Amino acid sequence: MTGNQVRLFAGMLLTTVLVTGCAVPPKGGQGISQGGSIEQLIAQADRAQPIRAAELRIQAAKMALQMGDQMQVSAILQPIDRAILPPNLRFEVARLQAGAAIEQSDAGTALSYLNPAQFGDLSQDQQAELSLLRSQAYGQQSNSLAAALELVTVAQNQIGDEQRNTHAEIWKLLQQSDTESLVAASFNNYGFYQQGWIELTLSLSKSSDLSSQRDALLQWQKLWEAHPANTNPPEVLSALLNAELLMAKRIMVALPFSKQFAQPAEMIAEGVAAARYARAQQGLPVPELISVDTEQFNSAADLMAEAQSINADLIIGPLKPNLIDQLSSYAKLPVPTLVFNPANTPTDGLYQLDLSSDQEVRQVVERAIQEGAQRFAVVTPAAPWGQKIKQDYLTAIEQHQGQVATTLDYDPTTDLSAQVSQLLNTDQSDARYREIRRILGQKPEFDERPRRDIDAILLTAQPQEARQIKPMLAYHFAGSYPVYASSHLYEGDANATRDIDLNGIRFPDIPWTLNAEDPLHLSLATERTDTYSRLGRLYALGIDAFDIHPYLLQLAASRDIYVDGQTGRLNIDTARRVQRHLTWAVFDQGLAVPLGPVEKVLPEATTPESAQTAITEN
To answer: For residue range 258-316, what is the model confidence (pLDDT) as tens digits?
Structure first.
């Protein structure tokens, strides 16, 4: 795989879905006394014997939970002496206390309530609830391994789809665990169930591509034949086992090598050839590549006929949308085809790998919302390509329940300062100041402020324009607003002096651009001068097309299987379009440096006012 590490998709932590029913009791008043309010129940408890008092307080706590008052739950249950309670009531109190703590993201307190040693023998259902709550608490602490091992206990008492779903969560959590922790856990003498999962994860983590992972899984199966992960595997492992590799012996590279798109076509083809060469250098079998110019074909039918005439096992290309649209009209393609633009309609045998902006823009919006923003100013070029991206922003914001406070379609040929001032309403602020000064006949003190109904600014701009717009935001008193941008603003090569004005901007880009030490990139850079340019991303596109082609069937079988490629972490959705999960960076001292996990970055609380001007009489 030319050094590109391939792994099964780690996924997001989903145990919240599994444990919600344990943290909050059922709706509809089940198990809640109909004899009065929370205050009345507590008053009765204060007069009752200890066991009855605990029962009444438990009922009151359930009522408080139904009203979403977790703080009150803790206060209601605090006076109970759990040491004198029978096991069932002791567990019920701990369950409610832990659930309230988890709702408040206080995992440490929750785990202190959930120590298994304090309960004695529990029923099967209670043991499942205990393990689910402990798994959720460990998840809040980012202890994925501990969370997974708790779910292993839950899965032992499940069957069918319920168990398979839990197995899927176990696998995702184990994929998030670091190898060092897994190796240490393998020496802890866990039981059969836990040990089998740990050994499975370790065996696949040592493999560098999906083919060798499949071999490792087959070997694990021989040793753990009776393990539940073998008898009832999660979907991702089933896909890894059952989906065949696409072992192409001859690939037709079909691109427009003449006319308008000749240069992009050549760059993609060079990427394909470079990836093939890198694989051959590793001693691995490689297919024959046959290049054809799609400009010589009048239709997709002609293209497909050519592929069949040369006995091609796979087509890489075409690039032009009109041919791709024609291919998407087939019920099933006779030759599997990996195209470089989105298709109109999902079609059996048609896979799509593209650099279209919609995926990138969606990830920009998702990150901004994850970091606390809800109200956005969207800044895009007035040119047609900028308007397409603007619509991508608006669509993504709507899909994530955000709000568009204002937009700016900027024109780089006119005064950018005036355009930014209008965006932020500081032009209105200044106009109001001049009017008040005219009415008062004297000079008041003036504090210009931008509009306060935005949380973050979403920017798409070419590098030169971005380096003007970012300082303009600070000039117009909006320098504290976080700015998220698409990758268009990055030249691709490090230049601290040139990019110092971009400091603080967060943006996603492909690994090819942000990882300057990648061996394949360095190798191509010795022969080409444009590998770090915006157009140079096409080399990465060609490399990924070749690298993922053997695994197209496996990737299409499960969205939880991915390949770490040059254009992102790649998995395939149900429409057979490759989804590219990008790498994040932030400009710091003029350099694009890796950006860590999601964090809260909003400025001090703002009020939803269109503009404010603080004026006092002098």
So the answer is: 999 999 999 999 999 999 999 999 898 999 999 999 999 999 999 999 999 999 999 99
**Which H/E stretch holds residue 376?**
strand 375-381
With a CB cutoff of 8 Å and minimum separation 6, the contacts of 172 are 9, 10, 11, 12, 13, 14, 560
Element holding 7 (H helix, E strand): strand 6-8
Rounded CA gap, 285 and 276, in Å? 9
Amino acid of residue 499: D
**What pLDDT score was predicted for residue 84?**
78
* CA 20/CA 26 separation, integer angstroms: 10
What is the spatial distance between Cα 445 and Cα 433, in angstroms, rounded to a whole number?
9
d(CA 439, CA 387) in angstroms, rounded, equals: 42
Q: How many CB atoms lie within 10 A of CB 262?
A: 14
Half-sphere exposure (Cβ direction) of 188: Cα atoms closer than 13 Å: 17
For tokens 């440096």, name the residue.
Answer: 593
Q: State pLDDT tens for residues 468-482.
A: 999 999 888 787 899
Give the containing element (helix H, strand E) for 370. helix 357-370
CA distance 70 to 64: 7
Length of the chain as a residue count: 618
Name 370's Cβ contacts closer than 8 Å, sequence gap at least 6: 598
Residue type, 146: A
Q: How far apart are the first and last CA of the chain?
A: 71
pLDDT, residue 183, reads 94
Positions of E strands within 384-527: 403-410, 445-448, 456-459, 483-485, 506-509
Output phi, psi for 9, to 5 deg.
Answer: -65, 125
In order of 378, 427, 530, the CA distances from 2 in angstroms are 39, 54, 21
**Which pTM value belongs to this model?**
0.79
pLDDT tens for each residue of 181-232: 999 999 988 899 999 999 999 999 887 778 888 889 999 999 999 999 999 9
Exposure class string for 122-153: b at 16+ Cβ within 10 A, else e: beeebbbbbbbbbbbbbbbeebbbbbbbbbbb
SS3 label, residue 583: strand
Tokens for 353? 């790998």
In this structure, what are the phi and psi dihedrals at residue 511, rounded to the nearest 5 degrees? -55, -35
Alpha carbon of residue 36 to chain centroid: 47
Task: Tell me the two tokens of residue 476.
Answer: 């117009």
pLDDT at 544: 97
Cβ proximity of 604 and 452 under 8 Å: no
Residue 356 has pLDDT above 70, yes or no: yes
* Token pair recorded at residue 143: 């202890």
Q: SS3 of 251, please?
A: strand
For residues 521 and 275, the answer to whether their CB atoms sit within 8 Å is no
The two structure tokens encoding residue 267: 């760059």
